[in-house]
Protein backbone atom coordinates (compact mmCIF):
# COMPACT_ATOMS: atom_id res chain seq x y z
CA UNK A 1 0.00 0.00 0.00
CA UNK A 2 2.81 2.35 0.79
CA UNK A 3 4.25 1.59 -2.50
CA UNK A 4 0.99 2.42 -4.29
CA UNK A 5 0.70 5.64 -2.32
CA UNK A 6 4.28 6.58 -3.17
CA UNK A 7 3.63 5.85 -6.82
CA UNK A 8 0.43 7.89 -6.70
CA UNK A 9 2.26 10.72 -4.95
CA UNK A 10 5.09 10.63 -7.49
CA UNK A 11 2.57 10.50 -10.29
CA UNK A 12 0.60 13.42 -8.83
CA UNK A 13 3.73 15.45 -8.13
CA UNK A 14 4.74 14.97 -11.75
CA UNK A 15 1.65 16.89 -12.85
CA UNK A 16 1.83 19.61 -10.18
CA UNK A 17 4.44 22.33 -9.63
CA UNK A 18 5.71 23.69 -6.33
CA UNK A 19 4.75 27.25 -5.44
CA UNK A 20 8.39 28.43 -5.45
CA UNK A 21 9.01 26.97 -8.89
CA UNK A 22 5.80 28.56 -10.12
CA UNK A 23 6.82 31.98 -8.78
CA UNK A 24 10.25 31.67 -10.41
CA UNK A 25 8.56 30.63 -13.65
CA UNK A 26 6.14 33.61 -13.43
CA UNK A 27 9.00 36.04 -12.77
CA UNK A 28 10.94 34.62 -15.71
CA UNK A 29 7.89 34.96 -17.97
CA UNK A 30 7.26 38.52 -16.71
CA UNK A 31 10.91 39.38 -17.33
CA UNK A 32 10.75 37.97 -20.85
CA UNK A 33 7.46 39.79 -21.49
CA UNK A 34 8.92 43.04 -20.13
CA UNK A 35 11.98 42.69 -22.40
CA UNK A 36 9.71 41.96 -25.35
CA UNK A 37 7.57 45.02 -24.58
CA UNK A 38 10.71 47.16 -24.27
CA UNK A 39 12.04 45.86 -27.59
CA UNK A 40 8.68 46.45 -29.31
CA UNK A 41 8.48 49.97 -27.84
CA UNK A 42 12.06 50.68 -28.92
CA UNK A 43 11.37 49.32 -32.39
CA UNK A 44 8.19 51.39 -32.67
CA UNK A 45 9.99 54.53 -31.49
CA UNK A 46 12.79 53.90 -33.98
CA UNK A 47 10.31 53.26 -36.77
CA UNK A 48 8.34 56.38 -35.81
CA UNK A 49 11.46 58.53 -35.84
CA UNK A 50 12.42 57.11 -39.26
CA UNK A 51 8.93 57.87 -40.56
CA UNK A 52 9.09 61.40 -39.15
CA UNK A 53 12.46 62.03 -40.79
CA UNK A 54 11.19 60.65 -44.09
CA UNK A 55 8.04 62.76 -43.78
CA UNK A 56 10.10 65.90 -43.15
CA UNK A 57 12.36 65.05 -46.07
CA UNK A 58 9.32 64.59 -48.32
CA UNK A 59 7.84 67.88 -47.07
CA UNK A 60 11.08 69.68 -47.91
CA UNK A 61 11.14 68.05 -51.35
CA UNK A 62 7.51 69.02 -51.95
CA UNK A 63 8.20 72.61 -50.87
CA UNK A 64 11.19 72.76 -53.23
CA UNK A 65 9.07 71.40 -56.07
CA UNK A 66 6.31 73.90 -55.29
CA UNK A 67 8.81 76.77 -55.32
CA UNK A 68 10.24 75.55 -58.61
CA UNK A 69 6.75 75.24 -60.08
CA UNK A 70 5.87 78.73 -58.86
CA UNK A 71 9.09 80.06 -60.35
CA UNK A 72 8.47 78.28 -63.66
CA UNK A 73 4.88 79.50 -63.71
CA UNK A 74 6.00 83.09 -63.10
CA UNK A 75 8.59 82.76 -65.88
CA UNK A 76 5.91 81.45 -68.25
CA UNK A 77 3.54 84.27 -67.30
CA UNK A 78 6.32 86.79 -67.80
CA UNK A 79 7.15 85.27 -71.20
CA UNK A 80 3.45 85.31 -72.11
CA UNK A 81 3.20 89.01 -71.17
CA UNK A 82 6.33 89.75 -73.20
CA UNK A 83 4.93 87.89 -76.22
CA UNK A 84 1.58 89.69 -75.89
CA UNK A 85 3.35 93.04 -75.69
CA UNK A 86 5.44 92.13 -78.71
CA UNK A 87 2.34 91.05 -80.65
CA UNK A 88 0.57 94.27 -79.68
CA UNK A 89 3.59 96.27 -80.85
CA UNK A 90 3.67 94.33 -84.12
CA UNK A 91 -0.07 94.81 -84.54
CA UNK A 92 0.30 98.56 -83.93
CA UNK A 93 3.20 98.72 -86.38
CA UNK A 94 1.18 96.78 -88.97
CA UNK A 95 -1.75 99.14 -88.48
CA UNK A 96 0.53 102.17 -88.84
CA UNK A 97 2.11 100.73 -92.01
CA UNK A 98 -1.33 99.92 -93.44
CA UNK A 99 -2.51 103.45 -92.75
CA UNK A 100 0.66 104.89 -94.28
CA UNK A 101 0.25 102.70 -97.38
CA UNK A 102 -3.40 103.76 -97.69
CA UNK A 103 -2.41 107.44 -97.47
CA UNK A 104 0.35 106.98 -100.05
CA UNK A 105 -2.00 105.06 -102.37
CA UNK A 106 -4.61 107.82 -102.09
CA UNK A 107 -1.89 110.44 -102.72
CA UNK A 108 -0.68 108.51 -105.80
CA UNK A 109 -4.26 108.20 -107.09
CA UNK A 110 -4.72 111.93 -106.60
CA UNK A 111 -1.45 112.60 -108.45
CA UNK A 112 -2.47 110.22 -111.26
CA UNK A 113 -5.88 111.90 -111.51
CA UNK A 114 -4.21 115.33 -111.56
CA UNK A 115 -1.72 114.16 -114.19
CA UNK A 116 -4.58 112.64 -116.22
CA UNK A 117 -6.53 115.89 -116.09
CA UNK A 118 -3.35 117.78 -117.06
CA UNK A 119 -2.79 115.41 -120.01
CA UNK A 120 -6.42 115.79 -121.09
CA UNK A 121 -6.13 119.57 -120.72
CA UNK A 122 -2.92 119.63 -122.78
CA UNK A 123 -4.52 117.35 -125.37
CA UNK A 124 -7.54 119.62 -125.61
CA UNK A 125 -5.26 122.68 -125.76
CA UNK A 126 -3.17 120.97 -128.44
CA UNK A 127 -6.28 120.04 -130.43
CA UNK A 128 -7.60 123.56 -130.05
CA UNK A 129 -4.24 124.95 -131.19
CA UNK A 130 -4.11 122.56 -134.14
CA UNK A 131 -7.72 123.41 -135.00
CA UNK A 132 -6.97 127.13 -134.74
CA UNK A 133 -3.86 126.70 -136.85
CA UNK A 134 -5.86 124.60 -139.33
CA UNK A 135 -8.57 127.27 -139.52
CA UNK A 136 -5.92 129.94 -139.94
CA UNK A 137 -4.32 127.98 -142.74
CA UNK A 138 -7.72 127.42 -144.36
CA UNK A 139 -8.51 131.11 -144.06
CA UNK A 140 -5.20 132.03 -145.57
CA UNK A 141 -5.67 129.59 -148.38
CA UNK A 142 -9.14 130.73 -149.09
UniProtKB/TrEMBL annotation:
The keyword rRNA-binding does not apply. InterPro entries: CCDC90-like. Keywords: Coiled coil, Membrane, Mitochondrion, Transmembrane, Transmembrane helix. Its main location: membrane. Residues 48-118 form a coiled coil. SUPFAM superfamilies: Bacterial hemolysins (SSF58100). Gene3D superfamilies: 1.20.5.340. It is found in: Membrane; Mitochondrion. One of its GO terms (cellular component) is membrane. PANTHER family: PROTEIN FMP32, MITOCHONDRIAL. This is Coiled-coil domain-containing protein 90B.
